[in-house]
Design brief:
It contains 5 helices and 2 strands. It has helices at about 1-20, 35-50, 55-60, 75-90, 95-145, and strands at about 25, 150. Helix 2 (about 35-50) packs across helix 5 (about 95-145) and helix 4 (about 75-90) runs antiparallel to helix 5 (about 95-145). The protein is rod-shaped and about 90 Å long.
Length: about 150
């Protein structure tokens, strides 16, 4: 249990130090390094309480997993391709062959659409996480400014 506590404490310190590194905090009123560290720690706790965002939990939460099969794009593509192929094949005299070719082509197009949708969803999730961290960091900065530090 002690090693678990140390791991959590270490992860917390790492997240806080990485976030603090993104902000430049200057002791504008001659605060000592010890006071600055204490103020920063207290401001991080305050930011977590007031924003509802816990950067440790956010860092430990894995990103959403998306199915590699997609959301039915391949099936939809196959169906649409088969219908189109059937129509073209019927005109050419072989509706079955046209439907088969259309289904294969539609499946490939649907697969591409599934990959694009997955990538877009992952980018959206990453942007949401970044926005949450930015909100939390701004809250820390506001708190530190209130304690007499210059934050840039």
């Amino acid at each position: 249990m002690t090693s678990f506590f140390r791991a959590i404490t270490g992860a917390t310190a790492l997240v806080f130090s990485l976030t603090a590194a993104a902000q430049i905090i200057y002791p504008a009123q001659g605060q000592s390094p010890e006071l600055q560290q204490r103020d920063q720690s207290e401001c991080q706790v305050w930011a977590t309480q007031n924003t509802g965002i816990d950067p440790v939990v956010l860092a430990q939460t894995p990103p959403a997993q998306y199915s590699s099969t997609g959301g039915g794009e391949r099936v939809k593509g196959a169906g649409m391709g088969a219908l189109g192929g059937l129509a073209i094949g019927a005109i050419a005299g072989n509706g079955g062959k046209g439907a088969a070719i259309g289904a294969v082509t539609g499946t490939m197009i649907g697969g591409r659409q599934a990959r694009q949708n997955k990538a877009a969803s992952q980018q959206y999730d990453q942007a949401q996480r970044q926005q949450m961290m930015d909100t939390w960091s701004r809250a820390v900065g506001v708190c530190m400014t209130g304690r007499g530090y210059t934050v840039g």
